[in-house]
Amino acid sequence: MELKQKGANAQIGSFKQLKVSLIWTSAVDLDLMAFYKTKDGRTGGIYSDGYAGGSLGDLNAFPFIQLSGDEGVGATGGDNREELRITKLDDFEELYICALNFTDASGSGSKVFANYDARVEVVTDKGETHNVALDSSQQGSVAVLCKFKSSFMGAELVNDSMVMDLEKFRNTLPGAAALKVQSKVTLASKGDSFAIKPKVVAGKGGNELVINLNWNQETEKPKGFFASLFSGDDEIDLDLGVFVEMNIANPDTNEPFKFCVQPLNQGLLQTGRFNEFPWVHHLGDDRTGAVSAGEFVKVNLEERGNLRRVMVFTYIYEGAANWAQTDGVVSVKAPGCPELIVELGKASTQQTFCAICWIDFLADGSVKVTKCATFHEDHVDCDRTYGWGLKWVAGSKD
Asked: Which of 48, 142, 284, 351 could disulfide-link 169, Cβ–Cβ 3.0 to 4.6 Å?
């Protein structure tokens, strides 16, 4: 049965379990969510734990609703499906089923749901199926699709189609005020940390943690912003690198593998590999700061279980240190998560090496980034401070 018009309804009656599915094939990241108001006035929501404060719910205790997880990660097309299972509606005055377009809500997109082929399917344990299509041409990143209401005849399903922007949604639906779709989080002070849970779906591509080092570029300085850091004509060469500690033991020492990935010519592990051990890869060196995108390191999140922690650092390969003028920024991006920003700061020091942040890969699949922003004489000095225990030799880019 298809509930085509707003206000159309269907009697569900009694049930042991309902399955509510959000189904689509378009290249967009949609998220199925439920928000509620109970008969005693409580409000809340069930949505991916990839969002800050999100919960997948529980079938055996309140709210008696459980979400399967995330699909369409990275706006990937295919047979995408997210499911909510419901075993009890007795406590609810109203329960709203919603779809959030994460692709647009976390960026600046302005497409409409009619551009996609999505629908919500409600299947009862009696085999009855009810469909509500996401075919609205109204602009907005959130669609309120349908709601369940309790009555003396049991549960009732109502087409409650509404499309709105995220802010209106948060101010309108019960429990939705707690939902936050952050596009950026800045770690401002030493010790600040933030945990994200990347949306990773094996084999679908885009499963990468992207670490980027960038700095201000000024058009009147065609050789890059760092040309201003010197009294003469020399240019500065700022490089991005990472210390890596793995969960895999080195058979020769029975200790975890530890090494450094950076743009030097000292062998394979200096630049790393993405699809093979060590699943960390430096994409290339920007010798002058003239590349507007800066430098990148990518981590293969499908293999994050093999990684324990990474320390992100930058160092001045050539030139005198003047960190106060660099406006250097490191960003950390993962699919389905806010971008984390770590600024190097305005330190007044002649030390040429900066340990920027820790990235810890936790057992539950989440990734925690912590700002350290400490300055050192060189790699060896930083190693002594943080106890990496690596053996160092002089390197070259030539």
From this structure: 142
C-alpha distances (whole Å) from 376 to each of 24, 140, 143, 316, 383 are 51, 49, 51, 11, 9
**Residue 5: other Cβ atoms inside 10 A:** 8
Q: For residues 210 and 335, is the Cβ–Cβ distance under 8 A?
A: no
Q: What is the pLDDT of residue 350?
A: 82
Residue 218 confidence (pLDDT) above 50: no
**9-181 against 185-386: fold identical:** yes
- The residues pairing with 21 across neighbouring beta strands, listed in sequence order, are 83, 121
pLDDT tens digit string along 251-272?
888 889 998 998 765 444 578 8
Among 62, 56, 72, CA closest to 40: 62
Give residue 223's pLDDT.
42
Q: CA 100 to CA 165: how far, in whole Å?
A: 10
What's the predicted TM-score (pTM) here? 0.62
The residue ranges of every structural domain in the chain are 9-181, 185-386
Superfamily of the domain at 9-181: sav2460 like domains (2.60.60.30)
CA 227, 229, 235, 238 dihedral sign is negative
At residue 178, does pLDDT exceed 80?
Answer: yes
Superfamily covering domain 185-386:
sav2460 like domains (2.60.60.30)
